[in-house]
Amino acid sequence: MSCSSDRRNGFFSKLYRRTGLSGPVFVLLGLAFLFVPLLPGDFPTIVGVEILILGLFALSFNLIYGYMGQISFGHAAFFGLGAYATALLFRASQTATGEIGYIDFFLSLLIAMPVSAIGALIVGFFCVRLTGIYFALLSLAFGELLFYIVFSWYGFTGGDDGIQGLMPPPFFRDPDNYYYFTLAVVAVAGLLLWRITNSPFGYTLKMLRDNQRRAAFLGINVRLAMLMNFVVAGAFAGVAGALWGPFQRSVAPVLLGWMESGIPVFMTLIGGADFFAGPIVGSVIYTALNSYVTRYTVYWPLTIGLIILVIVLFFPGGILSIIDTRIRSYRNRQEAKEDLPVPSSEKMGSSQ
Amino acid sequence: MKRKILEVRELNKHFGGLHAVKDVNFDLFEGDRSAIIGPNGAGKTTFFNLLTGYHHADSGKVIFDGEDITNHPSHKISRVGISRAFQISNIFPKLTVFHNLRSAVQAQMGRAFDMFGRASQVGIEETERILALCGLAERRSVMAGELSQGDKKKLELALALAGKPKLLLLDEPTAGMSLEETRETMSLVDRLNEEYSLTILFTEHDMAVVFDHALRVTLLNRGEIIIAGTPEQVRMNESAQSIYLGEY
Known about the structure:
The structure holds 2 protein chains of 2 kinds.
Chain A: H1 2-9, H2 11-19, H3 22-35, H4 43-67, H5 76-93, H6 102-110, H7 112-127, H8 132-152, H9 154-157, H10 170-173, H11 175-197, H12 200-210, H13 212-217, H14 222-248, H15 258-271, H16 278-296, H17 300-314, H18 319-339, H19 344-350
Chain B: E1 4-15, E2 18-29, E3 33-37, H1 44-51, E4 59-64, E5 67-68, H2 74-80, E6 82-85, H3 97-108, H4 124-133, H5 149-162, E7 167-171, H6 179-195, E8 199-203, H7 207-213, E9 216-221, E10 224-229, H8 231-236, H9 238-245
Parallel strand pairs in B: 3-8, 3-9, 6-7, 7-8
Antiparallel strand pairs in B: 1-2, 1-4, 4-5, 9-10
C-alpha cells in the first residue's frame, strides 16, 4: 500500500497529473541536454545545437498545427526571414576582418523576432481567410514567394550564394559555449510557449481546432485569433532562425524553402502533435538520425520517408501518444486495484 | 408593458430558387418563452442562422435590444447577448467537458486573447456554477466527443449559457434525448426563464414539449409565418392543424 501511494505522489507522478506527459518529458530531456557537451568530441554538441534550434522551430510550427488545427507548408519562411534578418545586420556590423562585437552580435540576434513577426503578420493576413488544404497551399505559395525573392535579390540578400562568414564573437565560437547559449534561449522560448499554450488564448486555439463555427458563436473573432497565433508562431520561428546563422556561419535561401518547411512537419508527426513536447521529441529523433545516417549513407530522404510511413500508418499519434496510452492504462489499472474493497492481508500482498 | 428585445422586420432569404425565409415579421419581449414550430424544411433553422449571423439575409432587418444587428458577424452578435444551442450538437470534441465550458466562459469574460494568464485560474467559479446547473458536474473529465447524445446536448446548452445571454436560441434542445433527459432539460429551460429571467426562443418537433413549455407559439411553413399566438390559439387554428399538427 505504502509503496503504491509513494509512487502516486512521486515527483513525476505529480508532474504528470498537472502537466500531462509534456512536463516529465521536458524535465528528463532538459537534464539530458545539460550533459550533452560532456560526451566525447564536438560532434554530439553540434548535433545538440541543431536539435535545439530545429526543435524550437517545430514547437512554433505546432502552435499552428497541433493547437490551431491548420497545417502550414510554408513555416520555414519565418525561420528563414529570422535567419536572414540576423545575417544581414550581422554582416553590416562586422569589421573589415569579419569580427563582430558582443553587443552588435546580440542586437543582430534580437532583430530576427520582430522581422519574422511582421512577415507572419503580412502572410497571415491572407492565410487565415482560409482553412484546411487551402490554408496549407496558400502558406506554401507564400513560402515559395519569399524564397524566390531572397533567391533572386543578389544586391540585398546575396541571392543563391547566401551570406557567408558569420563568425560569432570569440566566446561563442567554442561549440560548448554556443550550445549552452542556445539551450538557454530555447529553454526560455519553450517556457514562454508553454505559458501561451496553457493560457486562455491557448484554449481559444484548441476551440478553433475543434470547431471554428462554435467558437464564433461564443463571441470569438476567429480570423483575428488565427492571425495572432500565426504571428506568435512566426515570431518564435524567427528566434530559431536567428540562432541558425551564427551556428552554421552562413545562411542560404533554402532556409525559406518548402524542403525546410517539411522539417517541422516531420518532427511534429514523429513526436506527436497532441503533446506540447511532441515536436522536441521529434527533433531529437529526426536530427540525431539525420546526423548519423548521413555519415554512412546518402539515402537520408529514403530513411526518413520510411520512418514517416511507419509512424503515419501504425502510430498516427506519434511516439508520445504510444507512451501516454501505456501510462494511462497502467494508471487506470492501479486505480481500479486500489478502489477494490480487498481484505487487508491481500492489500499488503498486492503492494509488493 | 414588457420591453421588446427582438424585432424582426420583413426578413427574406433565398437559397437559389428556394425562398427559405419569406417576409418574416417577428417580435420577442423580455422574459418570453417562445417556440417556433413547423414541418421539416419550414425554415426554422435558417431563421436562427439569420438571427445569429451565420447566413446573410437578402433583405429585412434584425433589431436586438434597440441595436440593428442585421448581417453582423456571429462573434459580434454573440457579444451583444444572443447565445445559441445547436440542433446537431456543436461542441469541442477533443476537449474535456470542463475545458469546453471553461473556454466558453473565458471567451465571455473577454479573455479569449489573453496569452499570459493561466487558463486554470480564470472563470473557474462560473464554470462550476454552469456545470452544476446543467447536471454535468460528474462528467467534467470526459472528452466531449465521447459523451452520450443526451449529455452532448446538455453541454451544448451549457456552452450557450456561458455566453451570459439575454436571449437564448435553442434549436431542438431535446432531440435525441431520452424521456428522462428531455424532462430534465426542459425543466432547466423553464427555470432559466423563470428564475434567471432569460428570454428563450426554441424550435421543437415534440409537440408535447412545445405545448407544455412554450408561452407563445409561432408556426412556420415554407418560410412564412402562418400563425402566432398562445399555445391554445395555435392548437385550435384550422390551418395549423392541417399543415402540421394533424390530430394533436
